[in-house]
Amino acid sequence: MQTSVMLKFRPSSINGKPGSLYLQFIKNRKSRVSVFKGFKIYPEEWDTRNQSFRLNTNNPQRKVYLENVYNKLIHTKSQVEAMIRELENKPSGYTLDELLQSYSSKKRGNTLSEFVEKLVTQMGNRQPRTARSYWSVVKKVKQFNQGKDIQLNEITPEFTLHFEQYMLNTGNKLNTASYYCRNLRAVFNRAIIEKVVEGRIDRPFSTVFTGNEKTTKRAIKKEAIKHMEDINFPFDKKNELDQVRWMFLLSYYLRGISFIDMAYLKKENIINGCICYTRKKTGQYFEIEITPEIQAILNKYQDSASHYLLPILKKGDSRRSYENALRKQNNGLKKLSPLIGLDKPVTTYVARHSWASIAHAIGVSLDIISQGLGHESSKTTLIYLKSFDYYSLHEANRKVIGGEGNNKNKFKIMRQ
């Protein structure tokens, strides 16, 4: 190797203060240095002869700090040596300044937030959802790390395990923790592809769950829908909980239309007494008759100044505006649920499940329900119904156990 790299220590000019660590590059009797910012140690913690740390401190916390710093610096030194080997394969050779420039360029973007910023810049406006997902990971990691950014090479199996545990301990569900771990893994893999970090055999994400846990899909009964219809709120367009109630019911009346499709409905979507729209998720075309119940809600919230049919989007049609509206709707439903006798909060998607479940309960054919939901096959609808029709199974089980007789007499006999 034509260039040598050494880890060095420079004591502070002020007595009692920690000194700096740096890499010294030597090539053809010329020398350059690069200081490690943020890493400080005391003279007694440095072994000049062996260019290493003295870890024989009696302070266990200090020892852990020194071990972490040393491991990071040794890893960086090995990365630089690998970079030198690549440069030495160039037929034209390289200068020490070119090496320092390559090293500085690679060092920039080694933190999670800096690399995500680079990725988002590369994406431009093509992948806004991915960009938001990556930034949400940065925010979550900083929360976990007491507001501090992390180096990409700090993403180890131990780090990801503690990160996952932090999320679960602070109230996040397993699928939510998986979402953040998956996106962090995606960023890390991009860093490997772009050679910002090296691929590692320790598999940083092997210790955490990155799949999708099957969740119980829920529907509410017709009685709960009726209770929601009858609950007494002041007739006021500005009453947020009242609007939450009617937006949920409208979704139910419109055969479980998704909240995003409902939010973007415009006045031109009304054609010949029907609401006609194309579902954003699948591209399927839907045509739904405007019943008196639907018309009453449209009348309540009609606004001649808005080109939207409903008062969901008020500040333009940006994705962020929609996400804020969705969050507001689900938070409102969480407050509304106990008012209609539910022990668990409903979400916007419950309207779709409820329409299908109630239609099935009153005898609507499977083919019609399938068509109403936009499923390509009734087999999909059957799986869909089975996944949340637990209350029908509970009712059937009570009938099987109880038969036609009086259960109270059986319990009296058992107690004797």
Structural summary, described in words:
- This protein has 416 residues and is mainly α.
- It is 50% helix and 11% strand.
- The protein contains 16 helices and eight strands.
- It has helices at 60-88, 96-107, 112-123, 128-144, 157-169, 174-193, 222-230, 240-253, 259-263, 292-300, 319-336, 350-361, 366-373, 378-386, 390-402, 407-415, and strands at residues 3-10, 19-27, 30-41, 46-47, 52-53, 270-271, 274-278, 285-289.
- The strands form three sheets. It has a three-stranded antiparallel beta sheet with strand order 1-2-3, covered by helices on one side.
- Helix 5 (157-169) packs antiparallel against helix 6, helix 8 packs across helix 12 and helix 12 (350-361) packs antiparallel against helix 13.
- Residues 408-416 have low confidence and may be disordered.
Describe this structure in a few short sentences.
The chain is mainly α and 416 residues long. The chain has 16 helices and eight strands.
